[in-house]
Amino acid sequence: QFFGWRLNMSLKRRKFLYSSGAVFISIFAKPFNLLSRSLRDKSLYLSSGADLKNKYFFSALNYTGKEKFRVQLPTRGHGSARRPNTNEVAVFSRSPGRYILVIDMSNGEKLTQIKSIEGRHFYGHGVFSPNGQMLYVTENEYDSGKGLIGIYDTKDNYRLVDTISAHGIGPHAIELLSDGKTLVVANGGILTHPDTGRVKLNLSELDSSLTYIEVPSGKLLFQKRLDKKLKLMSIRHLAVGPDENISLAMQYQGPRNHLLPLVGIQQGSGPIQLLTAPDKIAYKMRNYCGSISFNAKGNLIGVSSPRGGIITFWSFPEKRFYSYLEVLDGCGIAAEDNTDNFLITNGLGKILNYSPQREQADYHFLSKETQWDNHLLLAGNLIN
Asked: What separation, in Å, do the N-terminal and C-terminal C-alpha atoms of the chain show?
């Protein structure tokens, strides 16, 4: 049976969930052996969140949900990235963001804070070079509307040393391929400005794309777009699989009653292929995907749709819908290391360990005063 968290979502998600005193029941088959797993799995997971007083924080957890530390953030956080071969992690503010906080994840110490330069803001994501020297960050030059990639030198106190074009509007998620010089960017196509917050300013001219860029030259290698019929579809998040296959999570900006594909895959220099779900599932996704992750083997993709309270799973080899799981306000999702499982967080402080193949689940209630945010990162083990 599927693990079910069900509740009427007609009011604003999180305020309603807490004021209602909602109760949740887990239904699962044979539970995981937590003791044996905890002895051999030392990986840390990283996520931003908030408490009931709207104080924002960043936290490091193990897979059972036990916190290693919690650090206060100036404003709401979004994505995070670990600097290779170090215990440093960069925490990105939610778009339109003004800061990046660098934290020592061994103890939660704040190491440095990067501020966006005049005329620009951050979009919530970034990625480090393989040697850890450069940090590539998606940014917006808001007067011109140009999407940019800021390049920061970690060995010079994260100083901005270069800027290249994102070759699109509204660059959001960003990843680096294993060659160390090819960036893959999800250009959401949506123009925003700090003066108007998250208001979408250009829906009539939305232009989303998946873009491959060479660094440090900034050369556009190639760019993939959706069919013109999907002009109002925004490519927001992406994940890179073990064989550098790309999976995409999208958000549709058109009428709510339109049931359109929200998950895509892309391989090499080939086109974006859209994956369809049964109408019942597509309706539950509410035209909105929040986060995406391959499992460790790269054969399954997990995609969260927090507005619909559903996590969908997709078979990459078969290019089809696989299964789903109802998780109220579930958004953060990350692969477990060396297993087929996913770890999932939600806006009620829940942390769920789930195997789509076995339909087995175990969940851990951390705190009723914790609201986990959009993204969850598997950061791996600490370096001693």
From this structure: 41
